[in-house]
Design brief:
The structure is a homodimer.
Chain A (H helix, E strand, L loop, with lengths): L27 H8 L3 H9 L7 H13 L6 H8 L4 E5 L11 H16 L3 E4 L8 H8 L6 E4 L8 H5 L5 E4 L8 E4 L1 H14 L5 E5 L5 H16 L9 E3 L4 H12 L7 E4 L2 H13 L9 E6 L2 H5 L5 E4 L2 H18 L6 E3 L2 E3 L8
Parallel strand pairs in A: 1-2, 1-3, 3-4, 4-5, 5-11, 6-7, 6-8, 8-9, 9-10
Antiparallel strand pairs in A: 10-12
The first copy, chain A, binds a DNA duplex through α2 and α4.
DNA sequence: ATGAAAGCGCTAACAT
DNA sequence: ATGTTAGCGCTTTCAT
């Protein structure tokens, strides 16, 4: 169907079935011309201030705007005001399949919920390339976002030094940075896990770590060792394996772990996806969960409570963390005051993947 | 251990140590001044064209840019070029907790993967307000995005008529629109489900529909009726209930369904989350799945294969659909040619929630 | 080859 | 009260 358009200015319709002609959009200049008033009056009328405009004129402006199908160009406005009402979200790295990880999903959910309340939109950056880090930083500073949320940046990332002083930003998880950070109490959470395992009789405890280039991976590993030490338990190095925070990593590490002559009776996994992978490895090795092996995860991802056996886990409130990070960065943009960091409590959720020995 | 928690960010300590002064960013003008050349030369040097610049000068420009910590302002560039290299993603409505729905997650994953390859970023719009639809359309047209992907728009949404001819866009799921659409073959998928149920002996089949304001909800309901008719089976109206595509909706509808004196032996749910809700309702009513009730879902969400019993479902390749939509809209932006719609095949995945009667 | 200048659409300071 | 105009930082045409 051909929709004819009687808009302002040049409308060029080369209408070959599916060839779409984008119309020249009306601007405040067009409105001003039409009413024989100045652009500033139009601007003030449209924005309802800060300069007062007689109601009569204002109404006329609105009417003509409507008639001309006027749409304010926020790009032009941003160039002047230096505000885009957009917050950028920067994933760890442009990991493929980012959006299927529970960590990202949980944070993004909180971020979006809060963005809506705060009347902001959310720009998700892709294209991270460690070899062209400077270009990536350029992208982050190109004016599209007023502030940034860096999701669990890699420990070796230099981006933040370059970002410092250039744009308000906060980070999730990583508390090593000289920036406001939002995450859970990793060491407290890991202690909850190990305390529980010890309490139900486990003495031989292994760990499938996360990606150790990310602070959560490091922190949980360090906390794991501390927790064992606290209970005067030895850390058996062959029972401590690096995973990837992904199911595959948990599976691969799990196969290595379970093929050893002597096995732990319980394994703390750096997150639930790793735990899922370990469950699969256990299944393939004929190791029963939880009778032969207790498994505990981290995150309380939706799937952790759905699987059979349901995974005992350390819950962290990802959506609250995302929401807090979003509120904070918007505050930061508006006040230019760096917000306080926030650390959230974890909770032990005992389910079916762990049992007394 | 002491866990610090600083509550919601209502108040700010004015901590001078944390007061950040954003530096005035360098512009091409600064570079030009410094080298006593014109801004156009700087621009051409930086962009490596289209006008040739002697290598010697180019290097000087790059050196000064580096020295001044120059960051190109894409907002300014966009104002001229009318390209932001950003694609907007428009959720059905600014549903709270959007990011936890498998449909959104699956599509977004494909969208982000493809955005990275195509060197675009993704802007997620929030703030949909049906009562201020015009303002919302303004936002979509404010210049930040070159093109839009509308995720399963509500049937009654007027936004697309307003968007037509103003910006390249594609939609997911909804094939009623005068726009390129990307989705799965709903009627084929539903037929697979019903054919299978009939094949294993079911004759009394109910349906928990999705949100009927969304095309997938409508289409699957219509397809359900057709499929029953094809098999000369009656559609029992009290066994057809509206859900919401959410677990809660499936649960609520399920409770209503299961409390009826006569029950179906099998239920086709509009998506997996609904099916999950129905499973819970069945559990609470003492109805065994699949012995007393067969349940089949739609989507093949990650959780559908993880739960016990694993949900038999009709799989649709959400990430492929998202990827296709992303490719298409970028192509649309670049060529101004409306891309072709694509409909993806579904697949029947037989799992543990269905059994022969 | 390279500089000057005209915008892109808007806001807001400056004039009247 | 309202109009004029100078930018915001950039691209690109037009002049030289």
């Amino acid at each position: 169907m051909f929709i004819s358009y009687f808009g302002p200015l040049t409308s060029f319709s080369v209408n070959l079935a599916h060839t779409v002609s984008l119309q020249m959009a009306a601007t405040i200049k067009d409105i001003a011309k039409r009413l024989n008033i100045s652009v500033s009056t139009v601007s003030y009328a449209l924005n309802n201030g800060p300069r007062p405009v007689p109601e009569e004129i204002r109404e006329k402006v609105l009417a003509v705007a409507r008639e001309l199908n006027y749409r304010p160009n926020r790009i032009a406005r941003s160039l002047v005001t230096r505000r885009s009402h957009t917050i950028g979200v920067v994933p760890t790295e442009a990991s493929i399949n980012l959006a299927v990880t529970p960590y990202f999903q949980g944070l993004l959910n909180g971020i979006l919920n809060t963005a809506e309340i705060l009347e902001h939109d959310v720009l998700i950056y892709t294209r991270y390339d460690a070899e062209r880090a400077n270009e990536f930083v350029n992208t982050l500073l190109d004016g599209r976002a007023d502030g940034l949320i860096l999701l669990a940046p890699r420990i070796d990332s230099q981006a933040m030094e370059q970002l410092a002083g250039q744009i308000p930003f906060v980070v999730t998880s990583d508390e090593r940075r000289n920036a406001a950070h939002f995450g859970c109490d990793n060491s407290g959470g890991v202690r909850q896990a190990i305390d529980y395992l010890v309490q139900i009789g486990h003495r031989k405890i292994g760990h499938i770590a996360g990606d150790l280039r990310i602070s959560d991976g490091q922190d949980r590993l360090v906390a794991f060792r501390s927790a064992l030490a606290y209970h005067l338990l030895p850390a058996v190095e062959s029972w401590i394996l690096e995973g990837s925070f992904l199911c595959e990593g948990g599976y691969t590490a799990g196969m290595k772990l379970l093929k050893q002559p002597e096995r732990p009776t319980a394994v703390f996994c750096a997150n639930d996806d790793s735990a899922l992978g370990l469950v699969r490895a256990a299944w393939e090795c004929g190791v029963r969960v939880p009778q032969d092996l207790s498994i505990i995860g981290f995150d309380n991802s939706p799937i952790s409570s759905a699987v059979a056996p349901a995974i005992t886990t350390i819950g962290q409130p990802l959506d609250q963390i995302g929401a807090a990070a979003m509120s904070a960065v918007v505050q930061y943009v508006e006040t230019q005051q760096r917000p306080e960091s926030q650390t959230f409590h974890t909770e032990l959720l005992i389910r079916a993947s762990t049992a007394p020995i």
